[in-house]
Amino acid sequence: MKITPSKLNTYLMFKLPSAYFCGVRTKFLDSNKCIVTVKYRWINQNPFKSLYWAVQGMAAELTTGALVMKKVQESGKPISMLIAKNNASYSKKATGRIKFECVDGHKIEQSINKAIETGEAQSIWMNAKGVNSEGIEVSDFNFEWTIKLRSK
């Protein structure tokens, strides 16, 4: 099955329903970039009338994770993936539609090849930035993905 934005959104509905019901949606995915959006609504708000930090984290994680999933699938190898670490910073109240974008797809292929060659786990730091409809950055997320060839 080829990974596409619509298939990722269906996957969310069945496997990550909290993200789906909060409005997290994949809008674009290619080999190097993924865009995910989420709109501030009653169901995903915090007490300060902005988008709850965890909802921002779900959207940001999906931008990076979708790229890793796509590259793992394209490799045709049994590779596991897991987040080892993450950090985030918030710079502005997140209201309206927030667009999260990751353009770090180019980092993944080399790590996958090295994991296959050496049999050792590899890690990749990937960044996702959230911007509002005015193009102003509201949050910045970093995720350390670990990938490892599964033993047979």
Please characterize this protein's 3D structure.
This protein has a six-stranded antiparallel beta sheet with strand order 1-2-4-5-6-3. Helix 3 (53-75) crosses helix 4. The protein has one domain: Hotdog Thioesterase (Thiol Ester Dehydrase, Chain A, Roll). The chain has helices at residues 5-15, 17-21, 53-75, 108-118, and strands at residues 25-29, 34-39, 79-90, 97-102, 122-131, 137-149. It contains four helices and six strands. The protein is elongated. The chain is α+β, with helices and mostly antiparallel strands and 152 residues long.
Task: Please render the helix and strand layout as text.
Layout: H1 5-15, H2 17-21, E1 25-29, E2 34-39, H3 53-75, E3 79-90, E4 97-102, H4 108-118, E5 122-131, E6 137-149
Antiparallel strand pairs: 1-2, 2-4, 3-6, 4-5, 5-6
Descriptive keywords:
152 residues; alpha+beta; Thiol Ester Dehydrase, Chain A; six-stranded antiparallel β-sheet; 4 helices
